Amino acid sequence: MATTTTQTDIHQSIVKQQKAEQRKKQILNLVLLALLLLAPAVFYPVFLMKILCFALFAVALNLLLGYTGLLSFGHAAFLAAGSYTTGYLLSSFPGLTTEMGIIVGTAASLVLGLGFGLVAIRRQGIYFAMITLALAQLVYFFFVQAPFTGGEDGMHGVPRGYLLGVIDLNDNNAMYYFVLAVFLAGYLLVQRIVGSPFGQVLKAIKQNEPRAVSLGYNVDRYKLMAFILSAGLAGLAGSVKTVVFQLASLNDAHWHMSGEVILMTLLGGTGTLLGPVVGAGFVVTLEYQLSQGPLGDWVDPILGAIFVLTVMAFRSGIVGEIQNFMRKNMS
């Protein structure tokens, strides 16, 4: 009888703890939403949209790196696939709606992610990373040579158009709230995935893959699904970015872009929902501030130094370190 009572108390304690954590997440989400809704009154909307696009890109990579344990050096390929596909469609077919162009661009990245995943998930560790890098370089050279991309000049003058045929996206404020809606949809999707049974399996694969195999899970299938979802979200970020800046360029496909999004994710904190968002905001803001001053030519070395410092001294990233501090001092 006493044993049953103890088990009941433990179960109730766990349920209470889960509910408390859920309330904290909801409050944090509401605070962030309020800040994002009010942000255009303080900051330039185009700058904010750039942060949101890269934040969604980093959130996409974090689903793969932070929750599945797969380091991809080729995620720029998916960003560029969405970017160029959306740019080409909106430029070549004036009757096509903006949202349809973004949807097709995202679908193109999903298909590319399927192709990459079928090849890459058969390997682990550095071999997986190198395969994704090699495949991404093939995509980069395709965009260099393809006639519709504009080569090194890029694709300019992509029309923003009208959302649902009514809302003029040439208005930066309207465009900002559309980008915010897309970002929130992607962020909440990842939050839902991470909290689902599928997400729990991904975490188990990251922590101990042989054990996940021994429990009967088809590990390769779960990895492939995570890879495809991550690729699709990265493509969505690229599609929206092209509409915002009315430009698709080779910078989106370059390996440097893959390295930059890894830096954003690690700096903010892998395995945390908010970490990639914070990391993207920090990196984009730092790049902007440095480019405006005398250190404009030193942006890459400074980012490289920050990357090394993060890996060596702050393994959990900004958000991860804050969470660890709060656990130690508030428990």
Keywords:
mainly alpha, two-stranded antiparallel sheet, 4 strands
Task: Write a brief caption for the model.
With 331 residues, the chain is mostly helical. The chain is built from 13 helices and four strands.
The helix count comes to 13
- Lateral arrangement of strands in the main beta sheet: 1-4
Rounded mean pLDDT is 86
Total strands: the figure is 4
Structural class: mainly alpha
Distance between the termini: 31 Å
Low-confidence stretches: none
Described by its quaternary structure, the protein is single chain
Q: How many strands, what sense, and barrel or not for the largest sheet?
A: 2 strands, antiparallel
**Alpha carbon gyration radius:** 21 Å
**Helix share of residues?**
over 70%
Beta content: under 5%
Overall shape: globular
The helix/strand order is HHHHHEEEHHHHEHHHH
Helices and strands in order:
Layout: H1 2-38, H2 45-68, H3 76-92, H4 98-120, H5 125-145, E1 155-156, E2 162-163, E3 167-168, H6 172-195, H7 197-207, H8 209-214, H9 219-245, E4 247-248, H10 255-268, H11 275-291, H12 299-313, H13 317-330
Antiparallel strand pairs: 1-4, 2-3
Helix pairs in contact: 2-6, 2-9, 2-10, 2-11, 3-4, 3-5, 3-9, 4-9, 6-7, 6-9, 7-9, 10-11, 10-13
Walkthrough of the structure:
With 331 residues, the chain is mostly helical. The protein has helices spanning 2-38, 45-68, 76-92, 98-120, 125-145, 172-195, 197-207, 209-214, 219-245, 255-268, 275-291, 299-313, 317-330; strands at residues 155-156, 162-163, 167-168, 247-248. The chain has 13 helices and 4 strands. It has a two-stranded antiparallel sheet. The chain has a two-stranded antiparallel ribbon with strand order 2-3. The longest helix is centred in the N-terminal third of the chain and has 37 residues, at 2-38. It is globular, with a radius of gyration of 21 Å. The mean pLDDT is 86.
